[in-house]
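Write out the 3D structure for:
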Amino acid sequence: MAIQRWIDQAQQQLDAFNVEKIRATGILPDQGAKFFPVIGYPPLTMFTGMDQTALFKDFSSRQARPMIAYVHIPFCPSRCTFCHWITKTKSKTEEVDVYLDYLEKEMILYKTNLGYDAIPVESVLIGGGTPTYLTPKQMARFLAFFTKHFDLSGCTQFSMEAEPKTLLGQAGLEKLTIMKEYGVQRISMGVQSFDNDILAYMGRVHSRQDTLDAIKQIRVAGIENIFIDLIYAYPNQSLSNWAENMLTAVNLDIEGYQLYRLRIKQHGDRQGNIIKQVEKKSVKMPATDDILLMKSLGILLSKAHGFDEHQTRIFAKNSHDISHYLRDWCCRLTDVVGIGVSSWSNIRGVFALNVGDQDLAQYYSLIDQNKVAINRGKLRTRDDEVRRSFILPLKNMKVSKAFFQESVGVPLDIYFAEQINYLKGLHLLDENDSHVWLTESGRFFADEVCTQFFNPDYLPFPEVMRIPKAAFG
């Protein structure tokens, strides 16, 4: 089918969502021009000063939850303009070795404070940064001590993020083989685009061909679950360019992909360089209507080629292949043990965020003091717990009323009946006796709908209209 026909069909799908009616309510920030992703609740950018004391105090007496693990490897071949996280570029082997020393020390501190010989986890994500920036020798060392300090006997999925170029050649194949031997089952590769000009503008060092070659290399190593990330609404990106990207993606030998709208407002430990380009007006940003149409195109082309949206913005041919780590912490509300600079933890009612210094000095200093490298966090209040138990499952899959009541102790209707009824009237939500979920149009505006359930103190865009307010008691 010609690209224009796909664009026309995507426009018809978008028209069916009645965007103008939703805009008229005031719930879309700046009529949809502004965007903030609902990744966690409360947002990490709103944590305040805290050390490790609150995280481990009376640990054994607090309600236990299943645990999952995240490890942050900050090293990257380049600094991408869209990145909001702590990264270090072109680091020497010796610098990476030192960081690995401290990662293991922090793992030992964690398991000692939690009282485990090895911390049992049900899913794992090694992220960054670029974990595959490590040399084969460093990869083997890292995975050896990680699998020593974490018990993976009950782990349903071991996933690692990657950058295409770091998987190429003999060294790339050797890394992948080592990863396979240590149980890595899933690669989440930061592709972002198949257009070489856009990739260069993003600050990426890989090319379209590098991505295609990396996918083949992963298959040669025997890793069977490959996902990629793609970004839309990027400067200089057109509707036809995005459609071509999607048509490439749906015809690759992969299990699925995650589609991200470009995030301009800071949501991690470091403001992305994209803000400088936008504020200086040195780039041509896609119009808001085109951004919505790009999203519609992504959904339409995915469905037409057998990729279903098993979790919001995550498309796969098989639901089991999506990230178990993402599913577990946002839908099952599991605890998280986060290791490494800028990583975050969620343990028995307490959020903690590791220091986010780029030169790593403060991270190293805290660990040298035999402290987990926490410098921010939040003891979740009753209000936090109630909203989190609704917002995260709603954004990503659906809310089980029974699970909500089990989590917070009271029925869902006590808290959110007014908002649910209002949003049902806009055909953004639906419910039955057992669940509440986003409709097709609601999932399209999932972040904006879920923001309606935020505490006013946490709103990323305070001017967004909230109708009606929550009735908490």
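The chain has 18 helices and 20 strands.
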